[in-house]
């Protein structure tokens, strides 16, 4: 079912840099958008999809939400586990709503509160290809496991997926759960609240290496890209 189209595309190549508009972007399966800061095989935050309506309603400056794909779709109504098809080739797995963090307040005081749940939806690339403004967006349905919008529940989801006998460093746990490393300070107390089995699964980087350390291999394997030839590599936009 068609639900909208891409209005604009932007990439960020460096941390702290503003997004820059591009005429097209290449989506790479299980990796993200080629040349973008957030392209990472083990990240649930490869692509940020934002609603053009939020820009109009809140009178936002261009790229204020730092999105990759600007669409004419109410992203607050999208659901984790849904697969969206863009154009004829690209398929994205919707992961969770992007939180309106305090960084938005540096753009305009009070912006994080004003944006609320309209920051956008984060996604991973399942099937690659070229994305262009004007590409139609189709909702293929909720075909994959959902991830929670609550970061605490995502941390638990990651821990539940760990191989038996392994541990994970706090910084990798934060990365896989899609939160900043500053959240690591909250992990010890939070994990104790989940129970002794959880507290023993995560350690600091300085802990003695008495057990194998897991960095997320296989975590997203239930979202393998569709079979078929790999898309041709394009020059950087």
TrEMBL record:
PANTHER family documented for this protein: METAL-SULFUR CLUSTER BIOSYNTHESIS PROTEINS YUAD-RELATED, MOSC DOMAIN-CONTAINING PROTEIN
Alphabetical list of InterPro entries matching this protein: MoCF_Sase_C, MOSC_domain, Pyrv_Knase-like_insert_dom_sf
Pfam family, one: MOSC
Gene3D superfamilies reported in the protein's UniProt record: PK beta-barrel domain-like
Organism: Massilia forsythiae
Domain of life: Bacteria
GO function terms (MF aspect): catalytic activity; molybdenum ion binding; pyridoxal phosphate binding
Matching SUPFAM superfamilies: PK beta-barrel domain-like
Domain MOSC residues, every copy: 20-140
PROSITE patterns, A to Z: MOSC
Positions of region (Disordered): 208-237
Protein name according to UniProt: MOSC domain-containing protein
């Amino acid at each position: 079912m068609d639900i909208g189209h891409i209005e604009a595309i932007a990439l960020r190549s460096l941390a702290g840099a503003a997004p820059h508009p591009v005429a097209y972007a290449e989506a790479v399966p299980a990796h993200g958008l080629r040349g973008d800061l957030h392209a990472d095989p083990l990240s649930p935050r490869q692509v940020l999809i934002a609603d053009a309506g939020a820009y109009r309603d809140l009178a936002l400056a261009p790229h204020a939400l730092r999105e990759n794909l600007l669409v004419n779709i109410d992203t607050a109504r999208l659901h984790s586990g849904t697969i969206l098809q863009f154009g004829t080739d690209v398929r994205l797995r919707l992961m969770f709503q992007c939180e309106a963090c305090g960084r938005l307040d540096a753009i305009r005081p009070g912006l994080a509160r004003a944006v609320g749940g309209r920051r956008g939806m984060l996604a991973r690339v399942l099937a690659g290809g070229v994305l262009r403004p004007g590409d139609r967006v189709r909702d293929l349905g909720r075909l994959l496991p959902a991830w929670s919008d609550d970061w605490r529940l995502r941390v638990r989801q990651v821990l539940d997926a760990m191989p038996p006998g392994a541990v994970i460093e706090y910084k990798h746990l934060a990365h896989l759960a899609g939160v900043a490393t500053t959240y690591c300070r909250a992990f010890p107390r939070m994990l104790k609240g989940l129970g002794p089995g959880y507290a023993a699964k995560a350690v600091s980087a300085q802990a003695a290496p008495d057990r194998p350390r897991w960095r997320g291999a296989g975590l997203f394997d239930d979202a393998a890209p569709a079979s078929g030839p790999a898309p041709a590599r394009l020059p950087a936009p």
